[in-house]
Design goal:
single chain, 20 strands, about 25% strand, 10-stranded mixed sheet
Length: about 400
Amino acid sequence: MLLTHHCRLTVVTLMAWNAILSTTWAEDLTVQKLATLLESRPQGEAMQAARKMAFQLLGKQQLLQGKAAVKVEACSVAWAILDSEPAQVLRSDGTALGKMSALGDDGLQILIQTFPNFTEFGYQIVSSGPPKARGTLRIEHYESAPEMANTPNLPKGRLERFSWDQSRIYPKTRRNVTVYIPQSYTQGEEACLMVWQDGSRHVDPHGTLRVSTVFDHLIHRQQMPITIGVFVDPGRKEQQKESEKPANRSLEYDSLGDNYVRFLLEEILPETERRLGVRFKKAPEARAIAGGSSGGICAFTAAWERPDQFGKVLSWVGSFVDIRGGNNYPYLLRMTEKKPLRIYLLAGSHDLDNSFGHWPLANRMMESSLKFMGYDHRVDWTPCFHGSKGMAPALPDALRWLWR
């Protein structure tokens, strides 16, 4: 796994102003390049270039509406504001982070700083009167795994999508399902299966995990078998908009019991085979299930309830805490006869600690119980926060291990 523990602002040769103002300069626009330009104390044409970069990078429309803007890029942070009074950025405790620099005479001000990786802090932008903006920043940067790159001549699978609103197990819900079919798959033949919770975000070729691209690489290199990915979104209620957080997610994902795995086995997987003419292998060792956070405990629950159907589990920052009883799993593992499962967990030392529980401790207890019971398991510990960023650089190797 490629992990950057400390990030520094890269000093690049100051670009010629005519290159900055060319028609293509915005394609390579970065916080670091703007910071380099600001270090030169720009005047005249250079000042106009800096203003153009700041507006492009941080959002001119938002700034013109009187809203502050912030952009995190790797371990660098840029704040900007349009205000007639001199402004500065403070931590939530009042400690000064720095004074903002004026770019022109219309009140555009900006501050760019770099921080150690895996830093989290609250901030506020102040000038005169009450704070102009408040927020929390999380610095979490990793180098991308090479298997996440969409390289030329790589055989690419296709993505098929359908909507499902006919559930008997979760009535009056609707959801999107995306299916990845490898280029090397022969229609009508049986293939391995991997189901992903929170599917749309993970299969997105421009998202954090880019699972379909990673699959392309590993399948082409024969580092995992020909595998069809079924990416299932959590259910939205009938009245919900697509932009709203799915209201049924916690019920489906955090609950113990066999409802969700039955939903997959009785509804989603048969519908996928029927619609797309694909076939899944039946052996549990040919079937995996994956997810992060609540999707992670959901994946574990599905395999725990039906090890005859799913033999492999991939979970990152899994919510094995007391949301809907998941904190019992470390004890259930020790008290239940060992099941034929291969389990991969990724956990983060900067993960959540709230009223539901302490995520790092919960995953540490899962690790201890899996080891005690002699499960085929692997646990990777990283400094990651809650979310999928920490899983991204680890995903290719985790899949190699899971499908070995």
